[in-house]
Amino acid sequence: MQRPELEEIFQRFSGKEHWLTVDEVESFLKEQKEMATKEICLYVMQKYGLNDNAKHSQLLTQDGFMMYLLSPDGDVFNSDHDQAYQDMTQPLSHYFISTSHNTYLMEDQLGGPSSTEAYIRALLRGCRCVELDCWEGPHGEPMIYHGYTFTSKILFKDVITTIREYAFRVSPYPVILSLENHCGQEQQAVMARHLKEILGNMLVTAPIDGKPPNELPSPEELKRKILIKGKKFQTSGSTPEQQEETADECEEENVKNEKKSKKVKG
């Protein structure tokens, strides 16, 4: 594949030639603060060189140089950190969480396509919190899309099925579904049913070990579990209990206002 930025680096160290010598490879590695001995340079050139004649002459072509830079040996990140290396027994709120915004979008957020493929990509990159913008859909099925725009729409249940399949492919630690919920009561009930039926035991619906927690469980305790994060909306029609609570609150407010009025007059 074409990588102009890597070609520029190669040309800076190779000059006008079409290859790097051992000394030039060593110079490059030293500039990167890498271990750079003749033996290491020859190892890189032999392992990643694609041209047998060049390797025989102890030279590294541009293709071989790019292969090295795109390999684990040339990775800028510490490979030890590919796996969990920290204490994962602290409460969940003690950690930074890799989070995706508008996860369902493949392109722009005004007219781009929504796709389950976007969730697959995010989860395979290690994302642990994905966003689902949920809206009323036809035939009683909630949809996911960017509201008040021209983005395409996907079924809520298809997204949940995709998340179930890919949630723990690259990490066993919990996945959080961040719900932006714009659905009415009926389709919220449909969402709840899909979550329970599709995710099954993965879905956290009760305190871990049945004990009311004083703090959030740890990532270790929540391995291979899926959590729901969202706001709790008021129902469209209030229940008798809610009406009674509202009346009590209004009466308390009236009493407070009356006392304030008397103080002012006094």
Automatic annotation (TrEMBL):
Transmembrane segments: none
Region of interest called Disordered, as start-end residue ranges on this chain: 230-266
Major location category of this protein: cytoplasm
InterPro entries assigned to the protein according to its UniProt record, in alphabetical order: EF-hand-dom_pair, PI-PLC_fam, PLC-like_Pdiesterase_TIM-brl, PLC_EF-hand-like, PLipase_C_PInositol-sp_X_dom
Reaction(s) catalysed (UniProt annotation): a 1,2-diacyl-sn-glycero-3-phospho-(1D-myo-inositol-4,5-bisphosphate) + H2O = 1D-myo-inositol 1,4,5-trisphosphate + a 1,2-diacyl-sn-glycerol + H(+)
Superkingdom to which the source organism belongs: Eukaryota
Keyword Ubl conjugation: no
GO terms for MF: phosphatidylinositol-4,5-bisphosphate phospholipase C activity
Top-rank EC class of the record's enzyme: hydrolase
EC number: 3.1.4.11
Localization (cell): Cytoplasm
Domain Phosphatidylinositol-specific phospholipase C X span(s) in chain numbering: 86-231
Protein keywords: Cytoplasm, Hydrolase, Lipid degradation, Lipid metabolism, Transducer
CC per GO annotation: cytoplasm; plasma membrane
Acidic residues bias: start-end ranges: 242-252
Listed GO biological process terms: intracellular signal transduction; lipid catabolic process
Signal sequence region: none
Protein name in UniProt: Phosphoinositide phospholipase C
Lineage: Eukaryota, Metazoa, Chordata, Craniata, Vertebrata
